[in-house]
Amino acid sequence: MRLKKVKIGDVVTENNVFLAPLAGFSDFAMRKICEDMGAGLTFTEMVSCKGLLYDNANTKDILFTVGNGIKAAQIFGNDPDVMLEAATGEELGKFDVIDVNFGCPMPKIYNNGEGSALLKDPALAEKIIRTLKKCGKPITAKMRTGLTLGDGLGLPFAKALEQGGADMITVHGRPKDRIYAGEPDYDGIEMIKNAVSVPVIANGGVFDADSADLLIERTGADGVMIARGALENPFIFADITGKKRIAESKKELIFKHVDLLKTRYDDRTVAITFRKQLCLYLKGEKNASALKQKILTLKDTDSIKREIDAALP
Ligand SMILES: Cc1cc2nc3c(=O)[nH]c(=O)nc-3n(C[C@H](O)[C@H](O)[C@H](O)COP(=O)(O)O)c2cc1C
Fold first, then answer.
1. To the nearest whole number, what is the mean pLDDT of the chain?
2. Which of 16, 102, 126, 214 could be joined to 164 by an S-S link, Cβ 3.0–4.6 Å?
């Protein structure tokens, strides 16, 4: 795909290949790794604005951050004033861009009138963006093409976001009822790209350089956002951007990832919490399922490294 800088308000990214917000995964270590591999912008997982105001320790942990690249924090909520208070608070102070989640399909979020539920209320979404703009930072939005395929909700919603002052819109090309499955709705993304004048980033189904090319070609979007493809293979950013890889092998990358986590957490915590990420790293490796079974029993990182060292090239 053609690389270009993206202007998000007064912030300009190095390129147009971004790491998606990923609950449970896009922590400081994953964001740093992807940034070093070439991602032009990284997003935290979504954090609750109410959680931020109540000084929730887990929320603070999600927002822990290192590295010098441009950083976005994703927030969710549906009360514009509460969201503005969170956006101007200390915890979000270290982020350059504030992104609002208008795509989460999970029942506990949706049934609370947050995330993708807001697709039904463009007026409120517009108010949220307009209010958040008072924090002075670029405000971006991540939405879906609709709740169900062809329901027509995406286009007026994107226009409302632009009307409210959104500085960039990411469109996940799947309606809410598809969750993350199936081919992206290229037409749905393209329609939005053609209707607004702020940068539009396309998201969905990028697992290698070819699928990034396809997504840009089919939608005309200004860039791509990568989620699952990055978790399985952070090298994807180097592959697409041409930046030098920060590790020569998956094994070296895994070791780097563990060491990075150990700068913040004790060894046992790292050994246990890293398991889910490790399982993604091992996808497609020889004897992956036996290796995963073994690793799920290990409680220290030296043992994990020993197993990985013996199993991977
Ligand atoms: C485990 C997981 C967690 C996710 N967490 C978030 C999140 O916190 N905020 C958000 O906007 N999207 C979230 N998403 C959606 C992704 O950002 C992305 O839109 C979706 O996975 C489609 O992109 P892909 O086809 O590249 O995976 C999550 C997806 C997955 C699989």
1. 97
2. 126
Q: Residue 56: pLDDT band by 50, 70, 90 thresholds?
A: confident
Residue 101 Cα, ligand 1 centroid: separation in angstroms? 10
CATH topology (fold) of 250-311: 1.10.1200
Amino acid identity, residue 202? A
| Residue of 34, 104, 135, 279 marked catalytic | 104
Give per-residue burial for 239-270: e unless 16+ CB within 10 Å, then b. Answer: bbbebebbbeebbebbbbbbebbbeeeeeeeb
d(CA 146, CA 102): 10
Asked if residue 277 has its Cβ within 6 Å of ligand 1, the reply is no
Q: How far is the CA of 302 from the centre of ligand 1 (A)?
A: 31
Q: What is the pLDDT of residues 210-251, one digit of tens each?
A: 999 999 999 999 999 999 999 999 999 999 999 999 999 999
Domain locations along the chain: 6-241, 250-311
Are 118 and 158 within 8 A, CB to CB?
A: no
CATH class of 6-241: alpha beta
Can 34 be counted among the known catalytic residues? no
Contacts within 8 Å (CB) and 24+ apart, 111-116? 112/78, 113/78, 114/76, 114/77, 114/78, 115/46, 115/76, 116/143, 116/144, 116/147, 116/176
- Residue identified by tokens 């990923």 is 22
Phi, psi of 121 (to 5 degrees): -135, 70
| Per-residue exposure over 121-154, b if at least 16 CB sit within 10 Å of its own CB, e if not | bbebbbbbbbbbbebebbbbbbbbbbbeeeeebb
Which among 92, 85, 167, 77 is positioned nearest to 124, based on CA atoms?
77
